[in-house]
Target: AMP nucleosidase
Amino acid sequence: MNNKKPAETKSDLISLTDEEGVKQVLVNSVLGLWDVVNNLTRLKPSRRDRYRVTIFGSARAKKGTFGYEETRRAAAALSRMGCDIITGGGPGLMQAANEGAASVQGHAQSVGIRVDLPFEQEVNAFVTQAFEHRTFFTRLHQFVLTSDAFVVAPGGIGTVLETMMIWQLLQVHHLENTPLVLVGKMWPGLIEWARDSMLSADPPLANAGDMTIPRCAANADEAVALIREHYQIWQSGQHG
Model:
């Protein structure tokens, strides 16, 4: 069987003055690149060397506030446990988490996965390994590919976007066996809204089991305890 593509002929060539033809070539090329990327991301390591926890949260929280100090404390506790910490690399609660990770002596990494924004120019000073993205889409993809668990601190629209994406990937089993822990007072109301609004529709807009995917924690200690359970299972698999 001959898999070679036929050679281009003169009739295949697109003049740069043919605007619609040029647009179609560009669209087909971009879609082809996405196919390549999607194919490459099917490759997964059989085992990770390190357990990695992504912490999402507000960029607006200030140092010294309760949310900042709790996030820093949670990240430090997870780092002492042996986890690497991943954030969006920016200010606020992202900085708090990276600061907590960097405060622990040892081999834990404090990672920042940034997106190019006009109002956040610098990665925070506590990141020891940084990645840069131009779009939220590729950035969120890296979070998914590199994380073993997700902890969500209080945050705004960006944090909600990140939370909903992870929730949806867990719902459709594109992610499996990955904790999604929501910390603080703002999240139980979101789960309650989703349960009341989606399950009361006829037909229901989600399954009852979907509402149990995120686990709510009142504070940093409860969040760390939930991650510890999963981390211990992961450790036993590493040495099994």
